[in-house]
Design brief:
The N and C termini lie far apart (about 45 Å). This protein is about 40% helix and about 20% strand. The chain is of the alpha/beta class. The longest helix has 14 residues. It has 2 domains: about 200 residues, P-loop containing nucleotide triphosphate hydrolases (Rossmann fold, 3-Layer(aba) Sandwich); about 170 residues, 3-Layer(aba) Sandwich (Rossmann fold). The strands form 2 sheets. An 8-stranded mixed beta sheet has the order 10-11-9-12-13-8-14-15, sandwiched between helices. It is globular.
């Protein structure tokens, strides 16, 4: 915690005003290294405080007198860009550090007007950022730090060329911070191609080891899973994120549940931006008990008060189970993870529980409650 006392006064005030009592593991490891100006590749599960791990050093390093973009944060989705932007505004309050969110689909002329106010921190999706650089409306020569959030997604075909071009548009001595829920051989390869020297930080603490989170499952025939989900939507006080592996299965569930008047919303990358915002706002506000989503659509989004994570389709591997499950039981709250499984998937779940060292309990639905079988 000693380096918190090295932060500028406005950040110390913001920390005192926040409800945080201590830094998370990823923040303890990444903040001092980032403040030293090192390049970082950082892996840490969802819900462990990655955003603040790069935001505090960035806000601390901004020169308020320089009327120019000094930090750029790239993120894969509109929702994540807006969420990071809100965090910048919250932590940069009373500092005079202005920021801008630049997303595709929004009016480019309005964005160009806002850029005339010389925001010091720019947050955006890769396509729109690149477009504004090419138009010479976003000048990169003063940018000292580039963050690539959700790095493992950003090296996919959709983003990687833009990421490379954005990085090339800055001076050679800038700092690069790559943050991700998962790292792989592909991320290592791209990181070593884009950076010469960098530190790797890995934080593997997951929700599976938390005593606050209970893991259970409901046994179901494949054809009955949607009906099980409908019954779960009626459990009192539930605020559940429901994960699907495929958009086809998600669409099928949405259609059937809405036909049965079940209160659900959907967050999928294919939906229109306004529809996604509407769904997310309703779920965040507690107006619907369930949000159906995919791993990509929900990636990085901070949704507080999630009581249950439901694996409608079984995760493809242990990492996916950990990251989905990390949406509940955050910041010391209790939570429940429920997998809706077939007899065959039950054995996969038991094997995974064994591997990840957590106890999984068979459950059933009775009288609008989830009880031990």
């Amino acid at each position: 915690m000693e380096y918190l006392t090295n932060l500028k006064p406005f950040l110390q005030d913001a920390w005192k005003a926040s409800e945080f009592t201590e830094l998370t593991e990823v923040q303890q490891k990444a903040i001092p290294e980032a403040m030293d100006g090192k390049n970082l590749v950082c892996e840490s599960p969802t819900g462990t405080g990655k955003t603040l791990a790069y935001l505090l050093p960035i806000l601390n390093s901004i020169d308020e007198k320089k009327m120019q973009a000094q930090a750029l944060i790239l993120a894969p989705s509109h929702e994540l860009v807006m969420q990071i932007h809100q965090e910048v505004q919250k932590w940069g309050k009373d500092s005079g550090i202005n920021s801008i969110a630049l997303i595709g689909g929004a009016n480019v002329k309005n964005q160009i007007e806002k850029l005339k106010k010389k925001p010091k921190i720019v947050i955006g999706t890769t396509g729109r950022i690149m477009e504004l650089i090419k138009m010479k409306k976003l000048k990169m020569h003063e940018v000292k730090t580039i963050v690539v959030d959700e790095f493992d997604l950003m090296i996919g075909n959709e983003h990687i060329n833009n990421v490379r071009q954005v990085i090339k548009s800055t001076m050679a001595d800038r700092q690069l911070l790559f943050f991700s829920a998962t790292l792989s051989d592909s991320t290592d390869k791209v990181a070593s191609e884009l950076m010469e020297d960098y530190e790797v930080i890995r934080v593997n603490q997951g929700v599976v080891s938390s005593s606050q989170v209970e893991h259970g499952y409901l046994l179901s025939e494949q054809r009955d899973k949607i009906e099980v989900l409908r019954k779960l939507s009626n459990v009192e006080g539930i605020k559940a994120l429901v994960f699907f592996n495929s958009l086809e299965r998600l669409s099928e569930a949405e259609e059937k549940l809405k036909y049965q008047k079940a209160a659900v919303e959907v967050l999928a990358g294919e939906s229109k931006k306004t529809e996604r915002k509407h769904s997310l706002d309703k779920f965040r506000a507690g107006k619907v008990p369930m949000l159906l989503t995919t791993d990509v659509a929900a990636r990085g989004l901070d949704i507080s008060g999630v009581t249950h994570v439901i694996h409608f389709e079984f995760p493809t591997d242990a990492k996916q189970y950990i990251h989905r499950s990390g949406r509940t039981g955050r910041m010391g709250a209790s939570g429940t993870v429920i997998s809706i499984v077939t007899k065959r998937e039950e054995s996969f779940l038991e094997k995974m529980a064994d591997e990840l060292k957590f106890e999984v309990v068979k459950k059933r639905l009775h009288g609008g409650k989830i009880i031990a079988d």
